[in-house]
Every structure is written in structure tokens, then in C-alpha cells.
Amino acid sequence: MPMIRISHSHHLSSTAMAMCSSFCPHIPNHFRGRPISSFPTKPPLFVSFKAFSSQTDSSAIKDEGLTRVGFLGLGIMGSPMAQNLIKAGCDVTVWNRTKSKCDPLISLGAKYEPSPAEVAASCDVTFAMLADPESAVDIACGKDGAAGGMSPGKGYVDVSTVDGTTCKLISEHIKATGALFLEAPVSGSKKPAEDGQLIFLTAGDRSLYEMVAPLLDIMGKSKFFLGDVGNGAAMKLVVNMIMGSMMASFSEGLLLSEKVGLDPNVLVEVISQGAISAPMFSTKGPSMAQSLYPTAFPLKHQQKDLRLALKLAESVSQPIPIAAATNELYKVAKSHGLSDQDFSAVIEALK
């Protein structure tokens, strides 16, 4: 399996790596590119991606000493992510506020602990996938929170989508115990989570990033190391800001095409073959044309991410007028009771 490095001068080199068994364990490729910022104080962008679809096997995980893995938060995203870890042979311990959501995973072989602190105490590394900043802080730092079970040698990986301030607060509490912290919000929704095709946007302790890389490879198709805590959250908010704005514009186009007598399904096909083609349009368009919005990414979470992106932009005095207008549209959709529908239901706010 080739290992590729990209230097600042963009020259390529490769080294063949032997496959260790017929089980084909994954060996990630690594890129080293230019820093995210032109300022020399910023660490370089570090990217890995899967070269083929075979999942990492349990031997790679054991090599890193990660024999026990905790998972907190088993919603639309957390449950399939934890399932993939279990199916890959990981020793997984789970917790969720609603215990019944743990039952399917327990039936697959997961263990259960009654609090985040007890999960963290019993595991080498603990992942958390929570819905919002408030929940993320409570589960990490609150009463019976994960920090209460952390100690030197352990790691905490928060894969929730929150803001940089929240990430730094959680990091401080975790690192005060002597444990390591990594933020790792994901780009991708329900289906990519089920298929192990998420994109991890990580920042924090580089040593923890390298230790959990085999676990990230089980749950995702690629991973980026972005440097200091807060950079992962910022990248995720920028991505979701763009996604929310794209969906709002797409919704306008579908409705306008219908109003002038065109078939919105043909519009989807035309878009799919042009320069503005995007998997999101092809996937969501047909069901949107039928006023169906099966939830892959809840609308309330998209609006939350837009709100956090606006706060991020305000902190650096960057105007984002399109995102600001888009946020208002999602707020209208929420007022119509569409919070738990897929974010593509924002089209209803335009009708």
C-alpha cells in the first residue's frame, strides 16, 4: 500500500508497504500539505484517506493499546458509528441518556455503564457524539460526566458538532485529569455513518490522533488533522454553513422550476450532469419533489450549525450575508414544526 507525502514544493514520493495478512487490514495513506494559514505558527494540515474499502481489523487497534472503547450518545449518528466499531471487533462500552437506545448495541455485544464517568473509567478511549454544545459540555464536564472517569493514559474524542469555545472548555476539563483530548467533528450524515464513510475533522493532541487513527478508519473514509483545539469545530461549521446555503438555493430552484411548468425531477437530472453537480442534490432532490423528507440530518441541527457559524464569523468580523439569510429561512422552517425532519424540509418554508 503506497504512502504518499506532499511537501511544500508539492513533489510526490511513494513507498511500497507490504500487506500483513489475507484479511487485508487497512493501512492509511498520509498527506502533509501546506499549513491552513500562511502564518508559520500554525501546524501543517495532515490528511489521511482510505485507499480501498476494507475496514481496519482488530489487530491494528490492539497494536495501539486501544483494547477498550467507550461511546457516549447513540442518536442518528452515534449508533451506527458504535455499531461499526463493534462489528470490527472492538470491545465497546456504551451509554445514552435514554437507555433503550443502548439495547440494540448490547445485543451486538456491547457492554453498558450507567454514567459517562463509569464508561470513561472502564475504557482506554471514549468517543462522544452529542447533539449540541450544552449536551457536549454536560456529558463531559457535568455531574457524573466523562471527566470524572478520566486519568493519565486515557483519551477523550468528542465527535460532536460544537463551537470552538465549547471544544476548548471540554479540552481543559479532560486535560486537567492528565488524559488526552481530541476534537473530531464529522462531515457526513446517517448513511455515511452507517457505511463507515464519514470525514473526521480533528484537532488537539496529535499523539491521541495517531493512537485512534485505526478507530477513525473503521468509522470513516478520511481524516484531517488541523492543529489546535477549535480548528476542527471551525472547519465543520464552515462546511455546514456552505451545505445549508446550498440546500436553500436548491430549494428555491426546485420550486421555481415547478412554478414555471418544468419538471423538478428533470432539473435534478440536468444539475447532476453539469458543473454544479453535487451528491446532495441527486440524493435529496427526488424525495423533495414529492414533499418527503426522511431524516438523515435533522433540520434543527442544520439551523444550530448556521447559528454557530454566524457567531464564528462575528468573532473575526467576516460578513456572511448569504448564510445569515439562510439561517432566517431555517428558523422559519423550525417555526412550522419541521425541526425533526431532514434539513431538506427547509423547502417547506418557501412554499
Describe this structure in words.
This is Glyoxylate/succinic semialdehyde reductase 2, chloroplastic. Residues 68-226 form the 6-phosphogluconate dehydrogenase NADP-binding domain. Residues 230-349 form the 3-hydroxyisobutyrate dehydrogenase-like NAD-binding domain. It catalyses: 4-hydroxybutanoate + NADP(+) = succinate semialdehyde + NADPH + H(+); glycolate + NADP(+) = glyoxylate + NADPH + H(+). Keywords: NAD, NADP, Oxidoreductase, Stress response. This protein has 351 residues and is of the alpha/beta class. The protein has 2 domains: 3-229, 3-Layer(aba) Sandwich (Rossmann fold), CATH 3.40.50; 234-350, N-(1-d-carboxylethyl)-l-norvaline Dehydrogenase, domain 2 (Orthogonal Bundle). Helix content is 43%, strand content 17%. It has 13 helices and 13 strands. It has helices at residues 58-63, 78-87, 103-107, 116-122, 133-141, 164-175, 190-195, 206-219, 231-259, 264-272, 279-289, 299-315, 321-335; strands at residues 3-6, 12-15, 29-35, 44-49, 68-72, 91-95, 111-112, 125-128, 155-158, 180-183, 186-187, 198-204, 220-225. Strands 3, 4, 5, 6, 7, 8, 9, 10, 11, 12 and 13 form an 11-stranded mixed β-sheet that branches. It has a two-stranded antiparallel sheet with strand order 1-2. Strand 5, helix 2 and strand 6 form a beta-alpha-beta unit. Helix 12 runs antiparallel to helix 13. The longest helix is centred in the C-terminal third of the chain and has 29 residues, at 231-259. It starts with a strand and ends in a 16-residue tail after the last helix. Residues 1-44 and 51-55 have low confidence and may be disordered.
